[in-house]
Design goal:
By secondary structure, the protein is mainly alpha-helical. The chain has helices spanning about 5-25, 40-45, 45-50, 55-75, 80-115, 125-154, and strands at about 25-30, 35, 120. It is about 75% helix and about 10% strand. Strand 1 (about 25-30) and strand 2 form a beta hairpin.
Length: about 150
């Protein structure tokens, strides 16, 4: 993977991580004059009584912060080869965990609020999911390009 591709992957992973963190603090639901973000669901004890995946916000924050660190490390020129592959693997794992938990929480919200006309699911959770998808795709691309380069140099 040349330096330009490596920088692009690093920047995109940082962007995806940032979206995962920022999306937690955007509205996830809106209804009855009350908008709630992901962190509200995580910190509200009553939400945990009726919803199982209220920790999705904490998972997105953790995965986003980890992804941003991985993206920053991918920008370091001396980190290549197996270390770069390991960083990509870490990003894939944390983004997959975040996506699975986030989608489970989304489906749970849909089921819980589905019959209530006045409640809508807002963009915050979608921003988190989009960030997870960006990290996942860019990390897979990084592994593919690293494997392709190592095959060509052999």
């Amino acid at each position: 993977m040349d330096e330009k591709q490596k920088r692009m992957v690093g920047y995109m992973v940082i962007l995806g991580g940032f979206l995962m963190v920022a999306g937690v603090f955007l509205d996830w639901t809106d209804g009855f004059g009350l908008a709630r973000n992901g962190w509200d669901y995580f910190t509200e004890p009553d939400a945990a009584k009726v919803l199982d995946y209220t920790y999705a916000a904490a998972v997105f924050v953790t995965a986003g912060a980890t992804s941003m660190i991985v993206g920053i490390l991918k920008l370091v020129p001396s980190i290549e080869g197996k270390a770069g592959l390991a960083l990509s693997a870490v990003a894939i794992v944390v983004s997959l965990v975040a996506l699975i938990i986030g989608l489970l929480f989304y489906f749970e919200l849909s089921d819980y609020f589905g019959g209530i006309e006045d409640v809508s699911i807002e963009t915050g959770i979608w921003v988190c999911i989009a960030g997870g998808v960006i990290v996942l795709i860019e990390s897979i691309v990084a592994i593919y390009l690293s494997r392709k380069d190592s095959a060509e140099s052999s």
